[in-house]
Amino acid sequence: MKFLINLGLLLLLAVVLVVWVALPWPGVLALVLLFAAWLAATRRGRQTASVTGVGVSTLRQRLGSSAVIMIGTAGVVGVLVALLAMGEGYAETLRKTGSADTAIVMRGGSASEVMSVLDRDSIVVIPQAPGIARDAKGDPLASPELVVAANLPVRGGGPDDEGSVQLRGVGDRAWEVRPNLKIVAGRKFETGRRELVVGKSAQQQFAGLDVGKTVKLGSQEWSVVGVFASGDALESEIWGDADTVASTYRRGSSRASVTVKLADPKAFDTLKAALAADPRLKVDVDTTLHYFSKQSEGTAKVIRAIGITVGMIMAIGAAFGALNCMYAAVAARAREIATLRAIGFGGLPVVIAVMLETMLLALAGGVLGGLVAWLLFNGYSASTLAAGSVGKLSFQFVVSPQLLWDGLKWALAIGFVGGLFPAVRAARLPVASALREL
Questions:
Q1: Strand partners, 223
Q2: Which of 226, 246, 280, 319 is the most exposed place for a label (fewest CB within 10 A)?
Q3: Burial class, 335, CB count within 10 angstroms (exposed 0-12 / middle 13-18 / buried 19+)
Q4: Do the beta carbons of residue 260 and residue 268 sit within 8 Å?
Q5: pTM
């Protein structure tokens, strides 16, 4: 029976921790205000504040055990925030790539551009659909594009160290549908020539992409004539003339996608309906904002799952460390706790005071871990591993306020678990036995 009761308490504790970690900040603020009101307005609350004050005042005498709790929690929060910042940075880079006033059209059922093939007839028909913006001459702002994977030597690697980069074949319209993309060095490539403009991030990742250098793509030599910046995932690509890229990689007149500028964001529904109703086409259309956000979902979820798993394993270790330290602290203060009980302090104030002390130490550790993670990883540049048909994507870690907040909640959860059982032991300590101890 006792085993079942303990099992039920552990399950209840697990549910409480899950709810706590998922609790938004207004809920946490409400709990803090209610607890503060209880401390100030009730007799047991005032007793709890007094016992907590006594415990906190003796922390200097227990620097070793206090440091174990703080450092253990700081390690958990630091690692958790750093891992989640990687997923956040990856997703943020892709989210910034699209916009609500541009759309991308691909072959029906294609998950990404590298899997899509549009024939020549589709490339001619798609730009004529309603909802697409037009220039001063009345021509549609539509950019048929080809995307292939190319291998290049990795910067700083050996002669055989190559990575996959995304090569995008474009025409003049590509610059008009993406006005945020600017040439920052050199010039644009010329139509019909084997010339490349490279993204800033691609230039940092791969060797030989400086202006004036030549690289081998396919079986041909290409000249690097410019560098562009866009502040998004496109910076990890290299661009060339679409017809020349298609000829090099034997893609004929096909293209992977057509990116269009919408007349306004509300015109997307008009465009989608027109393309769906055209019997000549079997295509899917999406806003680039939604398309690129969707591309990040799978990888971001995997990174988050890994981060939470590693965090949970480390949190269990930190909680056991806090348990050991607080059990030792309770044993060392047995006479003090017994004296408080003897002069009228109840068991509940003692329980809450011990837990508060542990949670305050864990909170300090959480602040330290979050600060270290922010200083070391916020803005840290990284890139995905390239494999198969997927090119490298460069991105920066993002230690957002939400991630720091989540880390602090994890710290408090560790303090809660680490202080709960020692606190219950302190409240159950026989007064007479404890007073006889030294």
A1: 195, 214
A2: 280
A3: middle
A4: no
A5: 0.77
